[in-house]
Each structure stands twice: as structure tokens, then as C-alpha cells.
From TrEMBL:
Residues 22-33 have a biased composition (Low complexity). Belongs to the 5'(3')-deoxyribonucleotidase family. The active site is at D110 (nucleophile), D112 (proton donor). Binds 1 Mg(2+) ion per subunit. Keywords: Hydrolase, Magnesium, Metal-binding. Mg(2+) binds at D110, D395. This is 5'-nucleotidase domain containing 2. One of its GO terms (molecular function) is 5'-nucleotidase activity. Pfam families: 5_nucleotid. Its cofactor is Mg(2+). It comes from Catagonus wagneri. It comes from the Eukaryota. GMP binds at D112. Residues 1-36 are annotated as: Disordered.
Length: 557
């Protein structure tokens, strides 16, 4: 229905082509809402034989620009009928690559944030415990204790420049999104960011960060557990800067990272969750429904997690029941991903019911048994589960999915809990109108830049300012500091590019599988490349076919 409304509005405003013989020269200086076309571009509303004259004077040109602006405003209003909002389903599965579940015989899962979804109330606990470890064991100033966890500060996928103490959002082309760089809790001016990187927004990530986003000088925060880490890092830097204390950036970064690691290594997080699973574990009944349905349809299941068996066992008993291991053909704990996928040296070891290690050599992986460590190469040899008939789900794009897709040809599914909230924002009328007008205004700026008299330049400058304000408003709908995890102002984020590269499917939670048949085929939508898109929203709104005709391109050659 929304698509029909868009097409009807487009028909009302797009110039018509004549099909009944020669057409008369147009008295209009341009096609509707467009202005004089740029060189090499033909607009259907303007005859080829008679180039459209520009308005005579500067005042007339300025009035012409504002008239086109008002036309565009009305057009965008008509292009967005009420039903255009709420088109996206937060419970849907989104495909980067075509995949048929009919061909998938084996399903694999990570545990944390995949089988077990955790409540956000876990993050303040991790933050506070790591903060106290810094103070009590690393002897950091007592004043740091005044900081509490702010869930609205950071988002997943940010980069941290260790030597510059700079937390920032980087796009798919390795450019910092201006306005999203923070030192401590304070924004860093755009000019300073550009100066810090030698007069450019571009960050040479290939020199400064490894494949898994772990340095040497820039770290990417990729998992959901990193949210309290980013918050604590920013708070500690804020305290040191606010009190004029000298510090070594590398030492501070390592201490905060080690304190967060201690929360996990010492088992504090496991204890909190085990004490109150109702509070911390979400959608347990849906996890059980997913696993039970897959087994009922003859699928084989396996679990590979970095968490210890006692913790996983208690969580699975809570969600699935005491016989949960009967659903899985193979269970591997403390796997040490991502090295599990690349290091051939670590053998599998069997665990007994009490978690004690056996010393016998593993020659097969048995259903109902528990194994620790090991490596993927032995796993493939012992199970013969290879290639695209295996689909593995995880929440960490690097540790869970990257090697499986790139090196071994498994199909992969990314669990992105933030997707649900972001889709709900995208579905709002405020977001839809803001984005559509922003796109239309961008199209106007591109088409009208041929007007270069002083008054017209003032008009264009006013439009540029409005466009920037719209971008900031749209960004703040998701997160006031950093915006959406999937987009900068217009480009995909570095996180989003990795999501597309390392996952066939992505979804907010594993329970989304319940909305599809087990033989369902996912077809990704054909997203236009720039050279394939004659009717993007901004071109639709400006009434132009931007794709140059061959005859008009002679001057380019």
C-alpha cells in the first residue's frame, strides 16, 4: 500500500514524456523542482535542442531556488502517506546473502548473547565491579567511585585510539564521523580530530588495528560486554583530565581492560547471573522452542562457547530443562574462540559431570558428553560437518563468525540485540520524515549548485546548514553521542560493513527463527549500486533522471 502511494505521488510530480511526435520547446527554465541540469545530465522535462536559460538576475535566481525548495517540501509531504511508517518488523530476519534453510542440516550456537540473552541490568554490575577493582587492586584514585554506569553513552562497534584516548565512530571507508569523537566524557572538536590525524578524517586502520580489531594502537569494541568497558574507560579518562593528573594512555587502557577481564575471569558475572536467572536471562522459553523445533525436524545441533561448563549447565537447565544436553550432538565449553578456529594445536579434553578433566585421547565426539578447548580442524575431522550445510549463530562478528565464513565456508547468523530498538526508531514518523526530507534536500543541493551568484550561494549555504541540522537530529534519535550502530550520517559504519561481510543472516535474537519455516529461503533485496540507481529518493523528488545518456557524456571523455 505504501509503495502504491509513493508511485502515485511520483506520477503527479515527475515530468511526462511525449510519445505522440515532436514536442514544443518548454517555456519553463527547468524540469519541475530541478533547476538547470548540470553538464552531461539530461532531465526529461527539458528538450535536448533548447538548453534551459537560467533566471536573469540574482534576486530572480534566489526566488527560483526557494520556490523549488517549497515545491520539494510539498512533494515530500505527499510522498509519505501514514502507512509508510512501521514497515519494518523488529522480529524479522534480514539476509545479506541468499540462503535456504532447507539445505542446512547442522545448526551451531554460541552461548552468551546467543542462546542466552541477558538483560541490560547486567552492565551496571560489570561497570561497578571493574571500577572497584581499579580502585582497590590497581590503586586508582578513590574519586573514580563517584562515576556510575550511563547506559546511554556508548554504542557497540566504536573504535578507541589508545595513544590519543579517543573513542570514536568510524565508517566503512575508515573515516571518523565528525561529531562522534570523545575524550573521556567530553566531545572533541572536529578541527582537533582532523589535526590529530594529519589534516584528515581518515584513519589508517590497516596499519593501526589487526583483523580482530585488537590493536596495536586502535581497538574496536565489538561485543555487547564491551559497553560497560567503554563507559568505564571514558569515566576514568574524564577523571584524570578533570583533575589535571598526568597518565600514560597505554597503561590506563590496559588497567581498565584488565579490570573488566577480572570481572569475567574471577567469575563475578557468572555468580550474579546464577543467583538470579529470572532477572538476567531473557527469552529462555523461546530458546527452548527454537532448539526443540530444530531437533523435531531432524536437524543436528552443537554448542561452542568460551564460557565454563558449570555456568552454561545452570543457564541451560533454567531455559531448557535438566535434559538439555540431549538436544545437542556436540557440546564444547571454554573453547577459547577465536583461536579455536585457527589454532590446530589444542586437543579436545573430556569433562565429567563435576567438571574434572579426563586424560584419554579423543577419537570421536559423543552426544551427551562435554568437551573443553580443542580446535575447529579436529572438530571438522571428527564430525565431517563441512561447508554450507552448517549454519552457526553468534553475537561477536570476529570471534564467532569471521573465520567460519572466510576460511571454512559455513553459513553464519549474527545476533544483534540492538537491531530491535533501531528498527522501532526507524519505524517512527519523526525518523521517516526527517530522513526523507534530508534525502530530498541533498538532491536539491546537488542539482542547484549550478547557481553561483552571491544570493544563490547564501541560499545553498542555508540549505547546507539545514541539512547538517537534520543529520544531527536523525543521529540523536538513536544515541546522542554516536548515533546508530549501523550508519554514520550516510555511509555504513565499520561495524555494519563487517556485519555484511561476515554474516549471511542477522537478527535481534535467536527467537526470530520461530517466525519462519525450517525450509524457508531468505532472499536479500537487490540494493542499487550508485551507477544502477536512476530513481533514488532524491532524484525522484527532484524530478530528474540523473543517469547521463551516452550522447551527453562526450565532454567527459
Amino acid at each position: 500500500m505504501a509503495g502504491a502511494g509513493l508511485r502515485a505521488a511520483a506520477r503527479r510530480y515527475l515530468p511526462r514524456r511525449d510519445h505522440g511526435g515532436p514536442r514544443a520547446a518548454s517555456s519553463s527554465p527547468s524540469c519541475p523542482g530541478c533547476g538547470p541540469p548540470g553538464p552531461g545530465v539530461h532531465c526529461p522535462g527539458v528538450p535536448r535542442s533548447a538548453p534551459a536559460p537560467a533566471p536573469a538576475g540574482a534576486a530572480e535566481a534566489s526566488a527560483h531556488l526557494w520556490a523549488r525548495y517549497q515545491d520539494m517540501r510539498r512533494l515530500v509531504h505527499d510522498l509519505l502517506p501514514p502507512e509508510v511508517c512501521s514497515l519494518l518488523n523488529p522480529a524479522a530476519i534480514y539476509a545479506n546473502n541468499e540462503i535456504s534453510l532447507r539445505d542446512v542440516e547442522v545448526y551451531g550456537f554460541d552461548y552468551d548473547y546467543t542462546l542466552a540473552q541477558y538483560a541490560d541490568t547486567l552492565h551496571p554490575e560489570i561497570f561497578s565491579a571493574a571500577r572497584d577493582i581499579l580502585i582497590e587492586h590497581y590503586k586508582y584514585p578513590e574519586g573514580i567511585r563517584k562515576y556510575d554506569y550511563d547506559p546511554s553513552f556508548a554504542i557497540r562497534g566504536l573504535h578507541y585510539d589508545i595513544q590519543k584516548s579517543l573513542l570514536m565512530k568510524i565508517d566503512a571507508f575508515h573515516y571518523v564521523q565528525l561529531g562522534t569523537a570523545y575524550r573521556g566524557l567530553q566531545p572533541v572538536p572536529d578541527e582537533e580530530v582532523i589535526d590529530l590525524y594529519g589534516g584528515t578524517q581518515h584513519i589508517p586502520l590497516y596499519q593501526m588495528s589487526g583483523f580482530y580489531g585488537k590493536g596495536p594502537s586502535i581497538k574496536q569494541f565489538m561485543d555487547i560486554f564491551s559497553l560497560p568497558e567503554m563507559a568505564l574507560l571514558s569515566c576514568v579518562v574524564d577523571y584524570f583530565l578533570g583533575h589535571g593528573l598526568e597518565f600514560d594512555q597505554a597503561h590506563l587502557y590496559k588497567d581498565v581492560t584488565d579490570a573488566i577481564r577480572d570481572v569475567h575471569v574471577k567469575g563475578l558475572m557468572y555468580q550474579w547471573i546464577e543467583r538470579d536467572m529470572e532477572k538476567y536471562i531473557l527469552r529462555g522459553d523461546e530458546t527452548f522452542a527454537v532448539l526443540n523445533r530444530l531437533v523435531a525436524h531432524g536437524k543436528q545441533l552443537f554448542l561452542i562457547t568460551n564460557s565454563p561448563f558449570s555456568f552454561v549447565d545452570k543457564g541451560m537447565r533454567h531455559m531448557v530443562g535438566p535434559d538439555w544436553r540431549q538436544l545437542f550432538d556436540v557440546v564444547i565449553v571454554q573453547a577459547d574462540k577465536p583461536s579455536f578456529f585457527t589454532d590446530r594445536r589444542k586437543p579436545f579434553r573430556k569433562l565429567d559431570e563435576k567438571g574434572s578433566l579426563h586424560w584419554d585421547r579423543i577419537t570421536r565426539l559423543e552426544k551427551g558428553k562435554i568437551y573443553r578447548q580443542g580446535n575447529l580442524f579436529d572438530f571438522l575431522r571428527l564430525t565431517e560437518w563441512r561447508g554450507p550445510r552448517v549454519l552457526y549463530f553468534g553475537d561477536h562478528l570476529y570471534s564467532d563468525l569471521a573465520d567460519l565464513m572466510l576460511r571454512h565456508g559455513w553459513r553464519t547468523g549474527a545476533i544483534i540485540p540492538e537491531l530491535e530498538r533501531e528498527i522501532r526508531i526507524i519505524n517512527t514518523e519523526q525518523y521517516m520524515h526527517s530522513l526523507t526530507w534530508q534525502q530530498a534536500l541533498t538532491g536539491l543541493l546537488e542539482r542547484m549548485q549550478t547557481y553561483q551568484d552571491a544570493e544563490s550561494r547564501q541560499v545553498l549555504a542555508a540549505w547546507m546548514k539545514e541539512r547538517q541540522e537534520l543529520r544531527c537530529v536523525t543521529k540523536a534519535l538513536f544515541n546522542a553521542q554516536f548515533g546508530s550502530i549501523f550508519r554514520t550520517f550516510h555511509n555504513p559504519t565499520y561495524f555494519s560493513r563487517r556485519l555484511v561481510r561476515f554474516s549471511d543472516l542477522y537478527m535481534a535474537s535467536l527467537s526470530c527463527l520461530l517466525n519462519y519455516r525450517v525450509d524457508f529461503t531468505f532472499y536479500p533485496r537487490r540494493t542499487p549500486l550508485q551507477h544502477e540507481a536512476p530513481l533514488w529518493m532524491d532524484q525522484l523528488c527532484t524530478g530528474c533522471m540523473k543517469t547521463p545518456f551516452l550522447g551527453d557524456m562526450a565532454h567527459i571523455r
